[in-house]
# Entry
Amino acid sequence: MNRLEARLHILLVALFIGSGCAALIYEIVWFQLLELVIGSSALSLGVLLGTFMGGMCLGSLLLPRLIPANHHPLKIYAVLEIAIAVIGVLILSAVPMIGGVYTAFAGSGFQGILLRAILTGLCLLPPTVMMGATLPAISRWIQTTREGISWLGFFYAGNIAGAVFGCLLAGFFLLRVFDMTVATAVAVAINVSVAIVALRLSGQTPEKLPADDASEAFSESRGEDSKLGVYVTIALSGLGALGAEAVWTRQLALVFGATVYAFSIILAVFLIGLGIGSTAGAYIARRGARPALALGVCQVALTAAIAWASWSIAYSLPYWNIDPKQLTDPWEAFRIDFVRCLWTVLPAACLWGASFPLALAAIATRHDEPGRLTGTVYAANTLGAIVGALGFSTVVVPFVGSQNAERALIALSAIAASIMLLRRDTGLPKLGRFAGFAASAGIALFLAWSVPPLPGLLIAYGREFAVWAKNPPAVRYTGEGLSSSVAVTEWPSGVRNFHVSGKIEASSAARDMRLERMLGHLSALMHPNPKSVLVVGFGAGVTAGSFVLYPGIERIVICEIEPLIPKVVSKYFEPENYNVLRDPRVQVVYDDARHFVLTTKEKFDVITSDPIHPWVKGAATLYTTEYFQKVREHLNPGGVVTQWVPLYDSTEDVVKSEIATFFKTFPNGTVWSSDLMGKGYDTVLLGQDGAARIDLDALAARFARPDHQRVVESLAQVRFSPPLSLMTAYAGSATDLRRWMEDASINTDRNLRLQYLAGMVVNLSEAERIFSSIKRYFRFPDEIFVGSPAMREGLRQALTDGTN
# Structure
């Protein structure tokens, strides 16, 4: 290869870096955009991922078969990049419109799955087919020699390097500082720039580079059986890679905290490993004479790398002496998480990355058409990746657990190794091939047997494992479900905690019971005669259970995304939740709450929401103005909505954003606090269909009714006695807090800025300061509390004295 051709190849690598960067920005934006419509349940995420990768697979297969080889590869590449940019712009505006049609007809069961698949197919298949076609298109410019195939590996590595940059750029800057529109504009600009450079190069270069006689060529032909073995191996490699990514992302999110930044770090490290491995594999393909043997050895090494990752997550990372509350600088926390992720994931990711160029070299012959060769191998790898991602996330982990999932990954790598090591073209004698097979099988069996289970305390306390490991509670239950890993722990005092993905979501402790009961009772009592209730998020069932005490309520719908929680966890809190699941009025719907609210035709008198913390990836969709507007549309006349807002693990800016966003839809809303001893802990936002007006005499009359005695007893158990003291939880109104909220960042579907803002400050504890800031604007609201002078004066005195 002469110097000019080498420079052109390097320039093509640079172009592929740009393509990869744009592709990852699009992927993050499109997934975030479509999750707003079809939800973020395991089923919805599976449909999204399957469609995205399926399009890539189709593109790699179809282009070599549909586009004649006499077209200049760089022109085809440029056209593909322009088309991706155009569709990227269209998707940004089309998804909300298509989403409106979807929500009008969406249902459950097979119909619901089909409609989700149709929607995602309409949006994602056109651009992803073109993305998948870019590598086969440009590969036609390469000769099927050792040097040519190695350059394909370098192109693939360049694409992954760009993907790393795009992942970090979108996750840490574009979507944190700006929004989806700006992120899309950046990706479009990259696509257009790449297309312009490619078009200019096409005018200066031939349609195909001349053969380089100095480069070593491959053999004349290979048998179909020989090719099939490589296809199966690279498919198993893709299956293992995406299966492991699904398993490890879930486990590492426990260690790091499930923020958007943690997911960006995990994806970036995985891609870094793929890029390093692809570069190394390309080099071996150029220099090595036996790529089939190298591919087989790579799969053997993967069995050890997978075992290393499982051991590291269970026995190493949790025991690093790190107290999250001491990491007040988020960038320092991200750096530590990045190092821990490299420590765990990088070895296996490098080996999976090396597999692709080695598979190309192991299957290539002198007369292969480069585009068809690359497209077929890439399609096999992508098809395996689809099966791995969907199978492990929705079937393997929920049904057999992550420990057995990692054992299955080791077995898959051992099978792939066996396929390659038993081939004749490894260059090994027959005895050597069988010895290698036996050795790899034995190693795999030993490593699979040694895979440790995920520690129960890690599932419970996640990133705070090292803190609680010194004096841990008893772990009563752990389970890995479709969407989350859950646990129940119990302290010697008898206090039980319910954990989701490494954090406490509910407990039987006094302060938590106070909040959970208050959320239910406040919602029911602010409506004069509630008959239907929607509870968003089951938790320990305490809030939902509060509603069964009201005789007038006829229907209670509980929307929960993780089936394990109501089915298993609720049993540990039956005394506190009044056996809510046994009440005939209760119906549990297993769905993403936002998707349920968007698609249900039912309206309710009360909607109460106890979502997961806003810093958890995806949770911010339950805190947007668009979501609150949909909630309001599902209220019957005079309806009431309540929303939990935590003050801990947060800052004033985050809480301002949550409250201001809620009040934008409910301008007459109020704030209620479950604080103890004036320090602040949790708050509840209350909005109504109309002006806020609370008749104290009418409330007192309800509490005096015989059919409300269980309500009175329930309130007394959480220190609201007499029951009217519940009103002393009042902390402010939207009108009073208007000045406080002036600089608040409003969370919308188009920016979801709350999850980026909250994810930066998850290690901070400023609850007392935040509560004090809110209380500075307090005044007694004469326009809200009405009733007899004695009632109003007594409440005024209680609120002024700060008793609670």
Notes: The CA atoms of residues 158 and 457 lie 40 Å apart. The two ends are 81 Å apart (CA to CA). The mean pLDDT is 90. The chain has four domains: 14-148+166-204, 231-368+382-453, 456-500, 509-801.
